[in-house]
Every structure is written in structure tokens, then in C-alpha cells.
């Protein structure tokens, strides 16, 4: 129905050319998938290499269903194939002949032809009704022709089973009946054993007396009535007695006929129990210990019955060849078993392939001595152990992989899966976000270690007498919280210090909690109020002389230099807080010309210094060794300020292009470029606050004769600099 509607309304497209199939255009329809194509398009497609089947011999493939066809369509026919070049009729289906279809239906068991008008697509199911029997054949039913479902009744099947004795008890079913499930007893051929089997199984092996062989000796009486059958359980009948006179023609060893022995006077045998005459020669029968390479024969005289065991002996060596023993050949099979299983008790002392363990095998015959133990050493990840057999050299990389994202502590840096086992967290340039013991600013980056590095922020701490403030690292202060220090001239604290000020008395590290609590309880707790008021505590009586010597630090070169400078300052009567020669100052040196330029354009200098500071911090914290910044074109004075500031910051500066577009490019180098402690703007600010008030300007009165009473310009007076009052 869909095909008819699309063809009639000209909405159906050809899959080859993707154009609409017109109602008057010649077409071809695939008989497998029923797709409709332009006849010319399908001809071109069938001749193209892309349409050929994979084996190259099955023809060309349909563009829609890939069904292979041998013949290429040449003529335009209707859908049923009876009319060539059908003419279009407005009242009929396009490309049809308007007659009955008459094609065979897809159902194989339907004998009726399609009875509707010529049409595209598959033929509908047959509407006729037929009479069919059920699966067991006992009932009949009227069903639609071509119906694929099977008919089942509610009766018992009743057909004879494979055993031929019992009937099927299942309800009407499709296919063959199942084998008979009843069990019966079967007897072996010799009649000594029974077993249960399904009814009807192995009936073809029955000889009328039994159905299987029990693999035991038959034991039935032979036809002579005196001897028993010595064959393995077998179908009837048993063989003749092998000792009957009409069966035996030679002596026991088989070398001499009985007829010659009768001529020599031997008694003729009458029944099977009569002895067989012996020829008197050596038996010579091959023994069971022989093989293809050598054969041992019986050395006894001609005799009846089995031969004696072999009397030959041979040396048997253990597997490794260390020991040997003598053994009779006897039966060859048992001799081989003895030769294979004979092992000495010597243990192998050679190293195994791993080079770590000894072989230690008993009667070892191995040449490679491979180690069967598990390696067990830790892999490079440090979490798992090697599960390979023990080996030489380094273990392989850990094969385990995580499919979770691996991030730094703050989560900014991420390594996406798969992540090999043992991979360290990614490096992160962000500031550490872990909780810290102090509330000072954090200067270290994000890290994967649980413990943060010591705090490097400088804090101001009073001496024990609260007379002087010193800068001390936070971590250093925490570690020395149980030490009593005297730094510089702190006279109220002399009770804690030796006579020489170049030495510092340090409370010894507590090696036992007893000593710590003794000092804390006696000295600190009882004198807490005095310490807060600035008094000192005498602790020399609380410790021994030996501890006093251990607690005294030795003077080093720096301590001696400070002591020498202090004596020189006292001799010259120089204040200890002054720095006349700028010894303590570690700030940068800015030229007077640069300072004057900065005063005239303080905003420009501040912006330049801010850009340089950001550039230096970026290159020192980043992974690149150099970073550059290009300034816009500017005049010569501004370029000179940039060049001079670049020297202070340790930055390379180069000017490019010609006037008026000449500009400056600065480059910061890691390890070389450093931000100064005091910027130019901060230096100017300090000088402005520390500079004394300028004197009143002096005016000179003009000559009265000139008639001009105007004031002259003030003259500039040089300020007096006090070199003993320099700010830090």
C-alpha cells in the first residue's frame, strides 16, 4: 500500500540517482526487497565495479538489499512480468498491466496463485481455507492456506518408540518421538555380569545370549569338556580346545613336527589332556623383555606352558646419572618402569634462572633450572608486588590502571584517565589551600604531601625582657619556644645570659619529660607574673654544671665580627641604632636623576614598576625560563626611565624601531631577575616623610632707583644632611 501511494503521487525516489520516479518512466523492481529503481539507473549500477559481489562470480548486488543477481535487466516489464513496456492508465497502478498478478506466493506449501491485480511489493497471504491433520495424525482441522503454525490436538501420541516395544506417551507433538526412557538389564557375552541401559540401546551388538563384553576372561567350557576358554569375554561361540590332537601338529617349542617324533618312538596323543612330546632342543622363544633393538630368548629345553623370566641383568642409572644399580630384565615393561622411576637422593645445588634461589631438586635433570616461585618484589608504583615467576633484572611496570581522574589537592590540575598505577599527582602552580597552624599569608604552591613546609613569614617578637623587637620566622619561633634568648643589648635579661654578650644561653633540648616538667613547674609557673612584668628568671640553680656547658653555644665568625663592630662603635661613640655608611640597608640604589624623573611623573613610574614586578614574579613561579613584555611607543625620557629601572630589577631591556614609533621590550630571566625590597615609589615616599621642613625663602629687595618694587626669585639653599640619621 505504501509503494502504491508513493508511486501514484510521484513521491518515491530512486536509490541510485535520488530522483523522483515518474509514472511514465521505465522502472525495475527487485524481487527480493521490492525496491523500485529507474531502469537506466539499475543498468548503470549493474555494470559498475561497486555493484559486483564479493566472490566476483555471483553477479551484481541490489543497491538496497545486496541480493546478488546474475542477469542484468534489459526490458521494462510490469510488476508481474507478463507485459513489456506497460502503458500508463490513470485508473490503474503505475507500471502495472492491470491484469491478475498470478505469481506464486512466498509460502512453499501454498498451491494457489496470487488473485489480485498486478501490484508492487510482496503478494498478500492466501485467503483460501484447507483441511490439515494434527502432528499425531489423529484429528483434522480447517485452516487458512499457507498458515505456518503447526496444529496440535490434546490426544496422546501413541506412536511406537525406537525400541519397537513401547509407545509414545507424550501429548500430540511435532517431530520424531523421543527415545524410550525405560531401563532394562543386559547381560554380558560370558553371562557373568549385568548392567542397566535404556530400552532399545545397543541392541545391534546382541548375539542372542548377551549384549556387551565385560572385558573379563570368558571361562566357559570348551568343546572338549575339560578346559575353559581363556579369551576375553566375546560373542558366541568359543574356539576349539587348543590342545586337541587334531589341532596340535608340533612340539611345544614349535621346531619339530610331531610326525618325526612319532617316528622316533614317541607315544601318539589320543585326547587333549595327553602331554605333548618334547623335542629336547633349546626352547628359543622370544621373551617379553625384548625390544626391536635386542631380543632375549628362552634358554630352557623345549617345554609346555609359559617360559621362565629372563635371567639377564643390566645396570640401571638414575635420571641424573649419579648412581646405578643392577637389575634383572625379567618382564621388559617392569624393567622400563624401574629404569624410569629410579632416582638418587642427591639435591641440585645450581642456581635457578632467577639467580636468587637454588634448584634444590632431587636427582635433577633440568638444564635451564627455571624458577617456579613468584617474584613478589614491589613494583615501581610501591603499592603492588610482581606476580611474575621469579626473574633476573628489574620487574616490569605495574600494569594496573585507574580510570578515575587524578587531581592535585585543590583540584585545579587534573590528569585524565587512564592513569597508570603509581602516577604522582600533577604539579599545581596555585597557592596551597590546606589548613595551616598560623594565620599568616601562604607563599608556597599546592602540594601532594600531607605536611606543609614551614611558614616563612617574618614576624616581630619581643625579647624576654620586652625591651627590643626582632624579626623572626614563624616556624623558627615555634621551634624555639622553649629557648630563652638574649639578642643584642638587653640588660634586664642578663640573668639568663653569660657575661659575654657574644654568646647566647639556650635551654637544652629536653631529653626526658621529667626534666621538662621540673623546670616548667618550679621556674616558669611560679614566676609567670614576674615574666609578664619584664623580670627575669634565674635557672642556673635548676640545672647541673654539665648541662650548663652543653647549653653554651660556641662563637662563630659572624659572632666575632659583630663583637668587633660593637667595640669599635663604642670607641667612636656611635649610636648602635644608626647606620651612617648604609651597611644594614639592602635596598636598591636609585640615581638622583631617576628620582627627579619619578617625582615629575610618579604615575608613569608606578605603572612601570608594577609591570616589571608582575613579569619577574611570573617568570620565577612559572615553568618558562624567560618572559617578555613590549611597551607602546614613547618618548626618549620615558624610555630612559624604563632602561634604568630594568637594571635595578635585573631585567634585559632593548629599544626597537625608529622615531616616533620607537618602543622598549623588556625580558625577565628566571634566577637573574629579582624584585627589589623597596620600589622607587616607596623610596620617594620615605624620603618625603623623613625630609626636614624647608627653610623660609630669602628675598632681595630691588634697587629703589629702578622704581620696581617687585620681589626677586627666591634662591635655593642646599639642605644639610645628617648622615647619622639615615632611615632603614
Short description:
The chain has 728 residues and is of the alpha+beta class. The protein has helices spanning 2-8, 39-47, 258-263, 332-341, 474-479, 513-524, 528-532, 545-550, 557-572, 592-600, 602-621, 636-649, 680-690, and strands at residues 27-29, 36-38, 60-61, 68-69, 129-133, 140-144, 183-187, 194-198, 313-317, 324-328, 401-402, 406-407, 414-415, 419-420, 458-462, 469-473, 626-630, 652-656, 663-669.
Provide the residue-averaged pLDDT: 77
Q: What structural category do the secondary elements indicate?
A: alpha+beta
Strand content: 5-15%
How are the strands of the biggest sheet laid out side by side?
17-19-18
Q: Characterize the biggest β-sheet.
A: 3 strands, antiparallel
Using the alpha-carbon principal axes, give the shape.
Answer: flat
Q: What Rg, in angstroms, do the CA atoms define?
A: 59 Å
Distance between the termini: 102 Å
Q: Count of DSSP E strands?
A: 19
Amino acid at each position: 500500500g505504501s509503494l502504491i501511494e508513493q508511486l501514484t503521487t510521484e513521491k518515491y525516489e530512486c536509490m541510485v540517482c535520488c530522483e523522483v520516479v515518474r509514472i511514465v518512466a521505465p522502472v525495475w523492481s527487485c524481487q527480493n526487497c521490492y525496491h523500485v529503481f529507474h531502469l537506466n539507473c539499475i543498468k548503470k549500477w549493474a555494470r559498475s565495479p561497486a555493484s559486483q559481489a564479493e566472490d566476483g562470480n555471483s553477479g551484481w548486488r541490489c543497491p538496497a538489499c545486496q541480493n546478488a543477481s546474475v542477469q542484468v535487466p534489459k526490458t521494462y516489464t510490469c510488476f508481474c512480468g507478463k507485459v513489456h513496456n506497460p502503458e500508463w492508465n490513470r485508473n490503474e497502478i503505475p507500471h502495472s498491466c492491470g491484469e491478475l498478478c498470478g505469481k506464486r506466493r512466498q509460502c512453499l506449501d501454498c498451491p494457489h496463485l496470487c488473485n489480485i491485480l498486478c501490484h508492487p511489493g510482496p503478494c498478500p497471504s492466501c485467503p483460501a481455507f484447507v483441511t490439515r491433520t494434527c502432528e499425531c495424525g489423529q484429528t483434522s482441522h480447517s485452516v487458512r492456506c499457507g498458515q505456518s503454525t503447526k496444529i496440535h490436538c490434546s490426544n496422546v501420541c501413541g506412536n511406537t518408540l525406537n525400541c519397537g516395544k513401547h509407545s509414545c506417551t507424550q501429548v500430540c507433538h511435532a517431530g520424531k518421538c523421543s527415545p524410550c526412557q525405560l531401563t532394562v538389564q543386559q547381560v554380558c557375552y560370558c553371562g557373568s555380569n549385568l548392567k542397566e541401559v535404556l530400552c532399545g540401546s545397543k541392541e545391534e551388538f546382541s548375539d542372542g545370549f548377551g549384549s556387551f563384553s565385560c572385558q573379563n576372561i570368558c571361562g566357559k567350557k570348551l568343546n572338549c569338556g575339560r578346559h575353559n576358554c581363556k579369551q576375553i569375554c566375546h560373542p558366541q561361540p568359543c574356539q576349539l580346545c587348543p590342545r586337541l590332537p587334531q589341532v596340535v601338529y608340533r612340539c611345544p617349542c614349535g621346531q619339530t613336527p610331531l610326525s618325526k617324533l612319532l617316528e622316533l618312538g614317541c607315544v601318539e596323543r589320543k585326547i587333549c589332556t595327553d602331554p605333548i612330546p618334547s623335542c629336547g632342543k633349546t626352547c628359543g622363544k622370544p621373551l617379553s623383555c625384548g625390544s626391536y633393538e635386542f631380543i632375549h630368548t628362552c634358554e630352557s629345553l623345549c617345554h609346555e606352558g609359559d617360559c621362565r623370566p629372563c635371567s639377564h641383568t643390566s645396570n640401571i642409572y638414575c635420571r641424573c646419572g649419579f648412581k646405578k644399580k643392577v637389575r634383572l630384565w625379567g618382564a621388559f615393561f617392569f624393567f622400563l618402569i624401574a629404569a624410569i622411576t629410579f632416582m638418587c637422593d642427591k639435591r641440585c645445588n645450581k642456581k635457578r634462572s632467577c639467580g636468587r634461589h637454588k634448584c634444590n631438586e632431587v636427582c635433577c635433570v633440568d638444564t635451564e633450572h627455571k624458577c617456579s616461585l613468584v617474584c613478589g618484589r614491589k613494583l615501581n608504583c610501591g603499592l603492588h608486588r610482581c606476580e611474575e615467576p621469579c626473574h633476573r633484572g628489574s620487574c616490569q611496570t605495574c600494569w594496573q590502571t585507574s580510570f578515575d581522574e587524578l587531581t592535585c589537592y585543590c583540584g585545579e590540575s587534573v590528569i585524565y584517565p587512564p592513569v597508570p598505577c603509581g602516577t604522582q599527582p600533577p604539579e599545581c602552580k596555585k597557592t596551597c589551600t590546606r589548613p595551616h597552624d598560623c594565620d599568616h599569608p601562604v607563599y608556597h604552591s599546592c602540594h601532594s604531601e600531607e605536611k606543609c613546609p614551614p611558614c616563612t613569614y617574618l614576624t616581630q617578637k619581643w625579647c624576654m625582657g620586652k625591651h627590643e623587637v626582632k624579626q623572626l620566622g614563624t616556624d623558627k619561633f615555634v621551634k624555639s619556644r622553649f629557648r630563652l634568648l638574649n639578642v643584642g643589648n638587653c640588660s634586664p635579661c642578663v640573668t639568663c645570659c653569660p657575661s659575654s654578650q657574644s654568646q647566647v644561653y639556650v635551654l637544652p633540648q629536653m631529653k626526658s619529660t621529667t626534666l621538662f616538667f621540673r623546670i616548667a613547674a618550679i621556674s616558669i609557673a611560679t614566676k609567670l607574673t614576674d615574666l609578664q612584668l619584664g623580670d627575669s628568671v634565674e635557672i642556673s640553680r635548676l640545672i647541673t654544671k654539665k648541662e650548663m656547658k652543653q647549653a653554651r653555644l660556641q662563637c662563630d665568625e659572624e659572632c666575632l665580627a659583630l663583637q668587633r663592630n660593637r667595640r669599635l662603635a663604642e670607641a667612636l661613640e656611635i649610636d648602635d641604632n644608626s647606620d651612617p655608611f648604609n651597611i644594614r640597608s639592602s635596598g636598591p640604589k636609585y640615581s638622583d636623576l631617576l628620582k627627579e624623573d619619578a617625582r615629575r611623573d610618579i604615575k608613569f613610574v608606578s605603572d612601570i614598576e608594577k609591570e616589571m614586578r608582575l613579569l619577574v614574579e611570573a617568570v620565577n613561579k612559572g615553568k618558562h625560563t624567560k618572559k617578555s613584555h613590549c611597551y607602546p611607543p614613547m618618548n626618549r625620557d620615558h624610555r630612559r626611565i624604563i632602561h634604568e629601572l630594568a637594571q635595578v630589577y635585573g631585567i634585559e631591556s632593548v629599544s626597537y624601531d625608529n622615531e616616533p614609533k620607537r618602543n622598549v621590550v623588556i625580558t625577565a630571566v628566571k634566577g637573574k631577575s629579582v624584585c627589589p625590597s623597596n620600589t622607587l615609589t616607596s623610596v620617594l615616599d620615605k624620603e618625603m616623610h623623613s625630609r626636614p621642613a624647608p627653610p623660609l625663602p630669602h628675598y632681595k629687595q630691588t634697587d629703589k632707583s629702578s622704581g620696581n618694587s617687585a620681589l626677586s626669585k627666591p634662591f635655593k639653599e642646599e639642605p644639610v644632611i645628617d648622615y647619622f640619621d639615615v632611615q632603614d
